[in-house]
Every structure is written in C-alpha cells, then in structure tokens.
Amino acid sequence: MKTLTTTELLARNRYVTDEEESHITVNQEAAKATGTAERLIRCCPADVYSWAADGTVAVEYAACLECGTCLAVADPGTLSWHYPRGGFGIQFREG
Ligand code: SF4
Question: Where does the sequence pass through the membrane (predicted)?
C-alpha cells in the first residue's frame, strides 16, 4: 500500500468555494499590533494567510481546511472566523 504525502492527501479533498462571501476576516490593524498576523501566517496548514505586497494579511479562504488552528492562535478581536455557509467549504475524502 502506497503512503500518500500530505500534499497528495489534500489534493483528494473537494472544495466548494463560496464566491460571494469569505468566512474569514482579519482585523488588519489589530492583527499586526498583537503579533497575530505573524502567527496566522506561520500556523495555518493550508497556507490560507500570507503577506500581501501592501503589507496586509491576504486571506485565500477557498483553501481553508476548517481545522480551527487559526482561532487558537489569534488574539481576541483580531480574527473573525465561522464555518462556510451551508453547501460550501471542504469535503474530506480521506477521513
Ligand atoms: S481553520 Fe485551519 S485551514 Fe482554515 S484558515 Fe484557520 S488554520 Fe487555516
């Protein structure tokens, strides 16, 4: 039996992107002031967060695994996160 890499496992998931509404919003000023911005970028296993050219935190919410890690590292008031609306988000195919 072949052992799959993390990238191969993630590629098996199905993502249904809500093109009208992001389920993640970063309070840019508060996130930078508290260090949350750096933690978000470092901790997200799906690389949802990154530094944009203008110095803000870019959010590629379509890749979110809905793991909740970012909620654990964000200071209060820096991040708004909720599950995607019904029918949207990730569908895991490998358990
Ligand atoms: S819930 Fe997980 S995958 Fe989604 S943005 Fe937060 S850390 Fe990244």
Answer: none
CB 40 within 8 A of CB 88: no
**Single-letter amino acid code for the residue at 15:** Y
The residue whose C-alpha atom lies closest to atom 8 belonging to ligand 1 is: 44
Task: Identify the residue whose C-alpha is closest to ligand 1 atom 5.
Answer: 64
Q: Name the pTM for this structure.
A: 0.91
Residue labelled with tokens 């358990």: 95
CA–centroid distance, 54 to ligand 1, in Å, is 22
- The answer to whether residue 73 sits within a structural domain is yes
What's the pLDDT tens digit per position in 15-58?
A: 999 999 999 999 999 999 999 999 999 999 999 999 999 999 99
Judge whether 81 lies within some domain: yes
